[in-house]
Amino acid sequence: MESDFTTKKIISKEILLKAYTRMMQAKSMADIYEENRNICKYVHSTSRGHEAIQLATAYQLSKEDWVSPYYRDESLLLGIGFTPYQLMLQLLAKAEDPFSGGRSYYSHPSSKLEGLPKIIHQSSATGMQAIPTTGVAQGIKYIEDFKLQNFEKNPVVICSLGDNSVTEGEVAEAFQFAALHQLPIIFLVQDNEWGISVTKEEARTADAYDYAAGFVGLNRMRIDGTDFVESFIQMQKAVHFVREERKPLLVCAKTVLIGHHTSGVRREFYRDEADLAKHRAKDPGIILKKYLLEEGFNEETLSQIEIEARKQIEEDFNKAILAPDPKPETVKEHVYAPTPITEEKGTRIPENGEKIPMVDAGIHAIQELMHKHPEALLYGQDVGGRIGGVFREAVTLQQKFGNKRVFNTAIQEAYIIGSTVGMSAVGLKPIVEVQFADYIYPGINQLVTEVSKSCYLSNGKYPVSSIIRVPIGAYGGGGPYHSGSVETMLAQIKGIKIAYPSNAADFKGLFKAAFYDPNPVIFLEHKGLYWSKVPGTEDAKTVEPAEDYILPFGKANIIKFANEEEIQKGRTLVVVTYGMGVYWAKEAAKNFEGRVEIIDLRTIKPIDEELVFERVKLHGKCILLTEEALNNSMMEAFGARISKNCFKYLDAAVEIMGSLDLPSVPINLILEKEMLPNAEKLSLKINELLNN
User: Fold this and answer.
1) Does the structure show a pLDDT above 50 at 148?
2) Looking at residue 463, what DSSP letter applies?
3) 670 burial class (0-12, 13-18, 19+ CB within 10 angstroms)?
């Protein structure tokens, strides 16, 4: 979509004066923040130089729309209706900060306010908002396709980006998905030619407009973002195009950087006077004032606007200084949204039920949920109708629900994971899959930066309700890139939940709980248990629970009890494990009849410390068994907590058993066996501990 703009077009007097007023407010805010550096102690950026394009964009938006501002977008926030005082509450990290309750930086908004465009959680990781925001547009398209909601206007999604952030690979994933699926989104790139101290010549071969040409189906415009009149008319055209055509568009708006990069990286650190003068010459406020005077506006009126803006901003700033800080006890609030699933319910073992493998439990759980909930959908690599997953873990689902509810994605782990933020925000329940645990790493940035922090940093407004399926674990010579275990890395991420079922019944019950949980859930699924192909894992097949069966997170299960007489004699121990470890433990326990108790954790976050501590105190001896490499593992950390809480009851140190500390699982079967734990190795450890 090429630009055909000419500048001399009519915009209403009201809009022009409103824009000038907001520009003067933004200028006064920047000036006052600079004059009060000792008070404005938290790092912040301002919108100086970007005011025109931001206000022009804001004035096109309606309550149906979604916008993701980045950290220099205070003028955009002013334009859509937030007051300077509200922004200052975040600047000073006050309790009444409407976005994060004092938890996040200035101009890092999130909002669900009635009557205003909605804003998902915004992070500081530049460019990372592109994927979650594209997820919003993906969700809106899904809602429109299935007529799940009626809108007064077709919603438009705006994703604001700085020019240097466009070089991020995850931005490319967002562009690719938006173009391929023709989503109703505008990528607004504000190009001031700087990326902190990095110039455009150092950072990129082309601006965003030229770069976007490579994404077939992504329309594009280039405009002067310092000129409010041009910006307004062009953004009006852009928003109208996306609202009506339902196609993606990139707008490359040339701007200037008048202020500091941030209060912590000041302009004098890296810019010379010639560069600063070049940018100041295109100050949007000066350009708009000149236009207004040429159009016959009274200079005294404009001067009075400047004076009133400064006065109001001073008053708001002084008021914000006096606003209360957050109470210390609120620091733990909103890590998770409350889940309605707190008790085991339904029929776990129906009469005349048939045994099914674990892989079928997953398929049936998703099928039942999708029949019941039109907001549920499944996507990921190879989950579509041709093969239904590389382990057949999604087979038949596309045929039953169509290719708009079950579909393949490109190899885009970051998009698969990060898009769930936006999909969840619009009320959908995405179930997505990363094909192997070894390939989750490209998605970790989104998982940590966006998914896990959304609930906490939005002050509870935007928990991410999603399920991320991850086939995991080693068996049968899968080799170094298809056999890894990643529990410890995931367990370190706060704000997510992790399931790791060992059998079909637990899988189905936990999956239902995950679906109804408003928080993000990682579902780790051991490949060797899917079909019970590994010798000794036949018990992973269970009678299929009824459709109403649901199993809450954080409830471990004692799958084998020790003999009471042996317990009284002090001749027992408890093995705490999960996943494939359950079957190593069951096989090893056969050598110590009545003397070994086995606990299956079932979920890793939350972990059932209460049951484990209780049973360790009873037995006095404990082995923690994991498939992960041992040193610095999650189970080592759990062992430390057990030692601390059960110290006076222990007859021996807590033992932790895992794989050898190697960079990856070797493909050769002999080497794989040597690396991994197994029943034989566990038997030796049990014997040693029982006879110590």
Assistant:
1) yes
2) -
3) exposed
| CA 56 distance to own-chain centroid | 29
Quick one: angle between helices 609-619 and 634-646, nearest 10?
60
Q: Which of 651, 665, 669, 656 is CA-nearest to residue 576? A: 656
Residue 468, CB half-sphere, CA atoms under 13 Å: how many?
A: 32
Peptide bond into 606 cis (omega under 30): yes
> DSSP H helical segments within 1-159, as ranges?
13-35, 51-58, 74-80, 84-91, 130-146
Instruction: State how beta strands 520-526 and 355-356 pair.
Output: unpaired
Residues 395, 359 contacting (CB under 8 angstroms)? no
Q: How far apart are CA 483 and CA 258, in angstroms?
A: 52
- How many Å is the Cα radius of gyration of the chain? 29
CB 605 within 8 A of CB 447: no
Residues in CB range of 608: below 8 A, 6 or more apart? 554, 555, 556, 601, 602
* Predicted confidence band of residue 195 (pLDDT cuts 50, 70, 90): confident
**DSSP states of 544-595:** PPPTT-B--TT--EEEEPPPHHHHHTT--EEEEE-TTHHHHHHHHHTTSTTT
Residues whose CB falls within 8 Å of the CB of residue 567, separated by 6 or more in sequence, listed in order? 618, 619
CA–CA gap between residue 429 and residue 467 (Å, rounded): 8
Query: How many Cα atoms within 13 Å fall on the side-chain side of residue 257?
Result: 27
Is the distance from CB of 3 to CB of 222 less than 8 angstroms?
A: yes
**Phi, psi at residue 624, to the nearest 5°?**
-100, 125
Q: What is the predicted pLDDT for the residue at 12?
A: 93
Distance, CA of 114 to CA of 127 (rounded, Å): 27
Please give the full DSSP string across 469-514, using - where no structure is assigned: EEEE---TT--TTSS---HHHHHTSTT-EEE---SHHHHHHHHHHH
Express each pLDDT in 208-229 by its tens digit.
999 999 999 999 999 999 999 9
Centre a 10 Å sphere on the Cβ of residue 373 and count the other Cβ atoms it contains: 13
Q: Which amino acid is at 119?
A: I
| Antiparallel, parallel or unpaired: β 520-526 and 466-472 | parallel
Q: How far apart are CA 579 and CA 639, in angstroms?
A: 18
Contact, 43 vs 262, CB < 8 A?
yes
CB 43 within 8 A of CB 105: yes
181 contacts: CB under 8 Å, gap ≥ 6: 138, 141
Q: Flag the least confident range among 79-83, 174-178, 200-204, 338-342.
A: 200-204
The closest alpha carbon to 445, from 171, 195, 164, belongs to: 171
Angle at 493 between CA 514 and CA 94, to 5 degrees: 100
- Calpha distance 193→278 (Å, rounded): 12
- Look up residue 80 and give its two tokens: 């859509």
CB 47 within 8 A of CB 25: no
Sign of CA dihedral 81, 84, 87, 89: negative
Q: What's the whole-number mean pLDDT along residues 364-391? A: 96
Q: How far is CA 629 from the centre of its chain?
A: 27
Query: CA of 98: how far to CAs of 30, 210, 518, in Å?
Result: 20, 38, 22
Average pLDDT on 531-536 reads 94
**Short-list 637, 565, 573, CA closest to 599:** 573
**How high is the mean pLDDT of the chain?**
96
Q: Which residues are catalytic?
A: 482
Q: Give the per-residue pLDDT at 7.
A: 41
**Nearest CA to 155 among 143, 173, 171?**
143
